[in-house]
Amino acid sequence: MKGMMMQRPLRIADILEFGAEQYPRGEIISVRTEGDLHRYTYPQAAARTRQLANGLLAKGVEMGDRIATLAWNGYRHFELYYAIQGIGAICHTINPRLSPEQLIYIINHAEDKMLCLDTTFIPLIAAVKDHLPKDLTYVIMVDKDKMPADLPFEALCYEDLLDGQPDTIEWPEFDENTACGLCYTSGTTGNPKGALYTHRSTVLHAMMIVVMQTSSFVEGGKVLPVVPLFHVNAWGLPYSAPLAGLSIVFPGAALDGENLFKLMDSEGVYSAWGVPTIWMGLMAEIQKQGRMPNGFKDVVVGGSACPRSLMKAFEERGASVSHAWGMTEMSPVGSHGVIPAWMNDAPLEERLDMKQRQGRRCFGVEFKIVDEDGKRQPHDGKHSGELFVRGNTVVSGYFKNEEATKKALDAEGWFGTGDVASIDHNGILTISDRAKDLVKSGGEWISSIDLENLAMAHPAVANAAVIAVPHKKWDERPVLVAVARGEEKPSLEAMQEHMSEHFAKWQLPDDILWVDQLPLTATGKVSKLTLRQTFKDYVHPDER
Ligand code: ADP
Question: Can you tell me the distance from the alpha carbon of 497 to that of 376, in angstroms, rounded to the nearest whole number?
Fold first, then answer.
């Protein structure tokens, strides 16, 4: 028997309308590329978002169109999120740290109709423009009087899209499974793959993290996403904050410790979210200043495991640190590191033991760990295996990529995360290793396999493997382990030069270790496990 309840579609537009109505004092504060600090309230943000939506419709944007953004964290980027998605189009957030090759690939693959960019990224786009779709409309996200006079390509001013448009709109009603956002993530090899979110998955994710992370979502508090809007929707914060009545502080481009400290201190930011690299920078500034930024109480760390010493440094200064674990394909949050209530009064070191783990799964996301044959392992804290996930906020495949889709899901329809994990009797997750062949530097992926292939294309290199080595600032950096074909051993600079055509500079290996041969597994593959073991005492050149 069916129940007798209404069914209303979950729509993203309703989130901001709710925030504007229920939290009219909520603010959005942004460091702008124009150089100043911009602030307005949720009702003002909602009004401009409606104007922008009308402006996009006037430009002929239709449901399902992909509108790309290449921008820092700021209020215009936030408006684009809600305006594009509100009218049923798809917001394709682009990571500016991609190599030019990958940038060209994803814009063409997504078939973007419009590209909205900060002035910072004009040179980046000018350099690849000839390879982008001919009918792409460019929009510069800047004040009218700051529009650059000598633009290398034809573009509209963002503010002209809003000008003269009404600030009211009847948001269209459509199926909640309509696509709303597109975010590409680097694979272990080849081109980036697109996660295509829906209104339903996004609204559920927003509600889910508010429920999970009650420590962060305190009405009237200010939250600062250091994690970029181009990085899995800034982990969902632009959706969760208006639901829970938090103001948002967008830091713009300057993410170094000194600038972050200043901004957080003057705004009294309560909670801030980002990768460990960012928090290392902020902690250095905190130590320099001898105090915490005013009101800072909640640090959420994701993207990589947070070093224990860093967690401790924040905890000792009165801020609570927690892990959020997840991935682009999971919207992204899958678990939140917590201190279970029964541990509230435990000594700091015991609480740190717990906080080092990745925590409780979010309601609506299920976990299983399996061995190499796909056999489920018990959740006893001892057995480990690859972590598979299932849930309403997990991708069911990749955008226009059947091959990658087939590889992503197992026979039971679960998604393989590529993370190695164990889960204990209390359901607490620990990520212990990574099965996927990737290096994560400052929160961004580098494909080991692609680097290896390119290294091996060098005539003097017979065989090569890339391993991740620990780095204080960047968490991990790639190092090349190579076997020479003959006598010649190219210098590091020569190898970097050879690889730089296909990789961004920050993705190139920092060192070469020449060996006589690479260790192999039973099946003849290079054993990364053995290599990592062999070089476990290796110290990165920056830290010698
Ligand atoms: P994001 O960096 O936004 O979390 P990505 O899709 O780029 O999303 O990366 C996801 C991967 O990052 C995970 O599969 C895992 O390897 C790693 N990761 C993310 N969060 C954590 C965490 N809290 N602890 C350890 N590893 C993490």
Answer: 45
Range of the domain at 377: 366-434
CA of 184 to the centre of ligand 1 (A): 14
**350-370 pLDDT, tens per residue?**
999 999 999 999 999 999 999
Max CA distance (Å), the chain: 79
C-alpha atoms less than 13 angstroms from C-alpha of 149 in its C-beta half-sphere: 0
185 in catalytic set: yes
Nearest CA to ligand 1 atom 8: 327
Note if 403 is an active site residue. Answer: no
**From the candidates 185, 328, 417, 430, which is the catalytic residue?**
185
- Indicate if 101 belongs to the active site: no
What are the DSSP calls for 43-106, one per residue?
HHHHHHHHHHHHHHHHTT--TT-EEEEE--BSHHHHHHHHHHHHTT-EEEE--TTS-HHHHHHH
Q: Which pLDDT value is given to residue 449?
A: 85
pLDDT of residue 502: 83
Statement to judge: residues 34 and 122 lie in one domain: yes
Question: From CA 108, how far away is CA 72, in angstroms rounded?
Answer: 22
Residue 376: how many other CB atoms lie within 10 Å: 13
Question: Which residue do the tokens 């799964």 mark?
Answer: 361
**Pocket lining: 305 vs ligand 1, CB cutoff 6 Å:** yes
Residues 77 and 222 in one domain: yes
What spatial distance separates the first Cα and last Cα of the chain, rounded to whole Å?
69
- 147 and 287 share one domain: yes
- Is-catalytic flag, 137? no
Q: Is 232 in the pocket of ligand 1 (CB under 6 A)?
A: yes
Q: Which of 113, 368, 440, 528 is catalytic?
A: 440
Q: Is the CB–ligand 1 distance for residue 97 below 6 Å?
A: no
pTM for this model (two decimals): 0.92
Ligand 1 neighbour 185 (Cβ under 6 A): yes
For residue 336 and ligand 1, the question of a CB distance below 6 A is answered with no
Domain membership of residue 380 (yes or no) is yes
pLDDT of 529 strictly over 90: no
Residue at which a domain ends, from 315, 335, 355: 355
Residue 338 Cα to ligand 1 middle (Å): 17
Q: Is the CB of 277 under 6 A from ligand 1?
A: no
For 392, phi then psi, to 5°, come to -70, -15
Same domain, 492 and 381: no
**108 plus 194 within the same structural domain:** yes
Q: 340 and 210 in one domain?
A: yes
Q: 440-480, pLDDT tens digit by residue?
A: 999 888 988 889 988 988 999 989 999 999 999 999 999 99
